[in-house]
Amino acid sequence: STINYQEIAKELNGIETTTNSDRLTKLSLDYYHFSPILTEQLQNKRGELAAFPTTEAEVLKIALICVKYKIPLTVRGAGTGNYGQCIPLEGGIILDTSKMNQIQWLKPGIACVQPGVKMAAFDKQARKIGWELRIAPSTYRTATIGGFIGGGSVGMGSVNYGQISDRGNLRRVRLVTLEETPQVLELEGDRVQKVLHAYGTTGIITELEIPLAPAYPWQEIIVTFDDFMTAASFGQALSDSHGIVKKLVSIHASPIPSYFPALKNYIPQGKHCALLMVSEYDITPFQDLVQEYQGEITYSKTAAEAAKGTSLLEFTWNHTTLHARSVDNKLTYLQTFYFTLERLEKLYQQRGDEIMIHLEFLRAGDKAVPAGLQLIRFTTGERLNEIIRDRESQGAFIANPHVYTIEDGGNKQVDPQKVAFKQQVDPYGLLNPGKMRGFRE
Ligand code: FAD
């Protein structure tokens, strides 16, 4: 490009920046490599300067310069997204939020944070007053709250609270625009949808107000089963048992547990398992439920014991894919909603040896439903699309993780509200260009 980024760095004086090429390479990538298709499409995309603002005023200063020189700007939290969400397709500036890591205030039930606050670090503070995040991804230890709102969707806690886009899970955001004269906007209520899962294409979030959940001491438990559908039915029953407080209900069909060497002493070969987080206070009724489904508890750690090692969370959601790929890098995944056990059973029976199923239950409307990131033995892109079409024709919903635009993934269609909002706040199309298909069209 014709822009001299050394000069830009000077103009940004007072704000930490880097043009070091090794650092830029790291700051330009995410976990897109879980997808063989995205790997091909995105591997050489790089930003040209990274900036590390600490305040909203510094974000505004960066925004002004981007508008002045028409420089693309891609926001980055921890960079753990899976669809190239924070990969700068057209270079430019990477705005890294890791130094915007202050909790502004914290009260019972609600908190206000800067976007770069890491989720586990936040919970450590919130738990001191008996509260925690409602929903958090399996990348909880490293991911940022702003990144989860900008690019995530579900995680532990979703069995109670659903998806982050469900009404009420985000109360208010402040954001910086890339208008001719950048400004700060606040969105509340349904208007927060304009930035939710928008990949940073509709403004730079500088502050978030998030409702919290009561914190319990979470017992971490593994239950094994001889039969997968019994394990799945147990998962449904636990998710539906309102008297048993839980945070994670994840069911893994054999041979998936064989990809978890760290758990091999607890899951005999050929068994199916449930990886769970249940309130320590509800263990007795929980054991009764396990007995009803003829499961066997093989691992049970109190919250205090679990805190000393790797949480079972880090074997669920897309961490399952991470572990499976470290054994066999031909494996990839598809995000799938089955909605009912009947549909799940039909698809489970047709899986062949190309597909392996694990479930994470989540609340959708008034029900807890089975969903999960099925593992796929990748052969070709055509075959992958065939699997997607086949599953969809049988009533499953697939959020395709092998695409990098917002619309082609989970949303499935252009959201006219998001597009109109982008036209207002980013008229030059500088924010994460190429990710919102509806804007270009
Ligand atoms: P980043 O990857 O840095 O950013 C994500 C998107 O948000 C980008 O498009 C970025 O531009 C945008 N963004 C970041 N900050 C801002 C801001 N301040 N303003 C505007 N836009 C912003 N996701 C789930 O939902 N649930 C899971 O359980 C889950 N498990 C995962 C497991 C593994 C092994 C991996 C690799 C990923 C997983 N993910 C999951 C995806 C990802 O980790 C989460 O969505 C995570 O919350 C992203 O946070 P981050 O800070 O890394 O965001």
From TrEMBL:
Q: Which GO terms describe its biological process?
A: lactate catabolic process
SUPFAM superfamilies, sorted: FAD-binding/transporter-associated domain-like (SSF56176)
- Where does the record place the FAD-binding PCMH-type domain? 42-215
Read off the Pfam families from this record.
Answer: FAD_binding_4
Q: Which InterPro entries has this protein been placed in?
A: FAD-bd_PCMH, FAD-bd_PCMH-like_sf, FAD-bd_PCMH_sub2, Oxid_FAD_bind_N
Q: GO molecular function of the protein, one example?
A: D-lactate dehydrogenase (NAD+) activity
Q: Which domain of life is it from?
A: Bacteria
Alphabetical list of PANTHER family matching this protein = D-2-HYDROXYGLUTARATE DEHYDROGENASE (PTHR11748:SF119), D-LACTATE DEHYDROGENASE (PTHR11748)
Q: What is this protein called?
A: FAD-binding oxidoreductase
Organism ancestry: Bacteria, Bacillati, Cyanobacteriota, Cyanophyceae, Pleurocapsales
